[in-house]
Amino acid sequence: MINSKARFSKKIKLQNEEKNQKFSKEAGVYIICACENDSELTDIPIKRFIGEDRRGILYIGKGVKMHGRVSEFCRYIKADSKVNKNWNHPGGKRLWHILQNDENKQKINNDISLDNLYVTFIEVEIKQGDAPTDKAEEKEQELLRLYFKEYGEVPPLNGTLELAKSGV
After folding, report:
1. Cβ atoms within 10 A of the Cβ of 107, count?
2. Structure pTM?
3. pLDDT band at 81, cuts 50/70/90?
4. How do residues 34-43 score in pLDDT, each as one tens digit?
5. How far apart are CA 83 and CA 89, in angstroms?
6. Which region holds residue 20: left if phi is over 0, alpha if psi is between -120 and 50, else beta?
7. Which listed residue, 108, 137, 147, 162, has the most CB atoms within 10 A of its CB?
8. What does the alpha-carbon distance between residue 119 and residue 14 come to, in Å, rounded to a whole number?
9. Is 103 helix (H, G, I), strand (E, B) or coil?
10. pLDDT band at 149 (very low <50, low <70, confident <90, very high)
11. Residue among 114, 134, 115, 109 nearest 124 (CA)
12. Cα dihedral angle (158, 99, 27, 62), rounded to 10 degrees?
């Protein structure tokens, strides 16, 4: 379990995120995961280098305004063949590039469809004098390090983890 102390929100369907008023506009960390569309939102396991991620985590991200960051990710999902050069979400961009290949799209859709993507989040506590960006970055790096320790790699749509800096 990457962080048993953190209290994340309930899962929100990624395609409904823009309409959902419960999604935080504050600084924090969000996790994009794959779930079955059943009543319990059962996680879809993903094979990892070490073991299997039974929570189906595809991306761990941060944002000063999480709603905006997740909306950026969603733009890539909704884009067909063209993306705006001003869009700036590395996980969304990775997924978009993967889905441009029909063979990749078919492989992914055998297990995970874009309809199965959900997001959960946790706000970071900002005290007077704290920079929201720094607090969100610290929490994101903490979760990425924990994920790496458990599975030997970061989630599939994340880039890399600075191992020397992170102390892993």
Report:
1. 12
2. 0.84
3. low
4. 998 888 888 9
5. 11
6. beta
7. 147
8. 6
9. helix
10. very high
11. 134
12. 10
